[in-house]
Amino acid sequence: MREEVLEFLGQRGTLVDPPALEYLLGQPNPLELLRGLFDAEGEPPFLLTLDNLKPAARPPSAEPSSEVPWEPSAPLPEVLLKPRLEYGKEVKVLRDITGGSTCQGKIEDFSRYFAHRFRVLSALLRGRRELQGAVPISRAKRMAKEVRLVGMVRDVRTTKAGHRLLEVEDEDDSCAVLLTKEGPLAREPVVPDEVVGILGNTWKDELIIAEALVRPDVPARNPWPEGVPPLWVAFASDIHIGSRLFLRERWENFLAWLKGDDPHARALKYLVLVGDLVDGIGVYPRQEEDLLVDDVYRQYEMLAGYLEGVSQGIHVVALPGNHDAVRPAEPQPSLPREIQALFPGDISFHGNPCLMEVQGVRLLAYHGRSMDDLVSSLPGIGYDKPLEGMREMLKRRHLAPIYGGKTPIAPEARDYMVVEEVPHIFATGHVHSAGTEDYRGIRMLNSSTWQAQTSYQRMHNIAPREGQVVLVNLATGEAVTKFF
Ligand code: D5M
Ligand code: FE
Ligand code: ZN
Description:
The chain is an alpha/beta fold and about 475 residues long.
């Protein structure tokens, strides 16, 4: 079909931008749609964009969205529901803080938290071939020349001469590690609090000059599980209901699509909401000015109204983000009972992050607040490249490697942000971007937003990619993006 669409456009001298092409290919009959459009337009457009294709995909007007919740339409006929009704809900939570928080913010909590982080990540590193024979730092410092060690980076600074000096620590000692500006690691990004392996040479009992740096990373190949039914899962996040900038019409288009007869919609079994379900209240100074609905219960009620209509065989899984009504410190527990009670019964509420198994596929969902810290510490990682940030998380086997930045982290007895088990799907939201990519067989995706550009984002030149939904085939890991 791609070829036919491109040929049709080529004959008329019209170029097409990638979102418009994806959108067209997702339609039941792209050529018919194009014929209708070209007949009506007179002069064919030079560049076909989403704006030409669907009025609803235009940037939002200044009109605030109204408060009336969307009316669910009539139930789908049995025959359309069949593919997904044949399967049960099959979501098993493997790791989630909900109900398990023990921290009180005492000094002991912090040392226990970091000890757990170090224990798990250093064990992963010691399993790496390059680090066979790694010794404790106390011994490494006394060794003659070549050393291998594993440690947590407590500090990174640049010397006057332009080299980088790390302070690296293990359970009972610490040492200085030099990354010279001429050496092989000159451009290697290192962030505070990550756990790394160092291969290097001791120099005058004072420091270790690093030759190579090893990260825990995920295995080179991660086979997709076998025997999974061909059901699809859709991801949405950052809906921000209650905000004046909530893109109501586009969200309603998505929900209408979910209930329609598009083949992907019919094979859809799960809808995962990756946080920032509502805009909340008191999340940032003077937020009231940006709110259309300033009652957080009412905001959740509106979301519940929307979800009421999609629960015919689609199982909704929701986790909170930094705008939701739970503690902001990560890991966040699921939304409180009073809020869950506003929703239809078939929705499961989990914590953030949450590792779950869906039909035998391991899914790691994390709202993604730590991207704010990665963006400011890693050169080349911008808000528009969430997939690169996610790759950095997987390499470090940690969802929030930098401690003490913008991401508040609760020092729980175990570090829930460590990526202990390798997921098959890794989903984030938060940055209001969108996209999907494969990293070593892991399906990574960022799940867009339903909020137009905020003044904060305008000031910082962050351009959101709104109304995009990534769908993943649970049987194969194949991904498709739909534009609304
Ligand atoms: O965040 C949505 C996006 O906007 C995300 O990329 C972070 C950025 N953002 C918004 N407000 C701030 C502040 N105050 N500091 C840093 N970054 C910010 P959301 O969670 O939806 O508000
Ligand atoms: Fe958000
Ligand atoms: Zn967020």
